[in-house]
Design a protein that fits this description.
flat, single chain
Length: 107
C-alpha cells in the first residue's frame, strides 16, 4: 500500500514556496530556495521530508492504514487556512510560517 501523507506535511512546501514568491529580498529568496531544495531531498526523493517523515512513522510501527482514511480535524483545517493566509500577504509573516513556526509545530 502506498503511504498516505498527512495534509499539513505536503503543505509545508507550499508555505515555503509562497514565502519565496512574495519576498523581495534576494538574500531571503536564496535562503528559502535552499530550504525548498532540502524539503525535496536535494534531488533525491528518498531524502525528501515527507519520505523521512514516513520512515519515522515506520520506526514507530505505524502502518499506512493507521491514517489512510483519517478525517482532517477542524483544528488542522484551521491551521492550514491560517498558514495559507499568512503566506500570501506579508513577507515577514510568510517567512515565519515557512521557517521555524512550521517546523516546531510539525516536530
Amino acid at each position: 500500500m502506498e503511504w498516505p501523507t498527512t495534509p499539513h506535511i505536503l503543505r509545508t512546501r507550499l508555505y515555503q514556496a509562497s514565502a519565496l514568491a512574495i519576498s523581495l529580498d534576494e538574500g531571503l529568496q536564496q535562503a528559502l530556495s535552499e530550504i525548498l531544495w532540502d524539503e525535496f531531498g536535494r534531488g533525491d526523493a528518498s531524502r525528501s521530508h515527507p519520505s523521512i517523515y514516513r520512515k519515522f512513522l515506520v520506526g514507530l510501527r505505524f502502518e499506512p492504514s493507521d491514517w489512510a482514511n483519517a478525517p482532517i480535524l477542524p483544528e488542522l483545517q484551521s491551521y492550514i487556512r491560517v498558514h495559507r493566509q499568512l503566506c500570501t500577504k506579508d513577507p515577514v509573516a510568510a517567512i515565519g510560517v515557512a521557517g521555524t513556526s512550521t517546523s516546531i509545530t510539525l516536530g
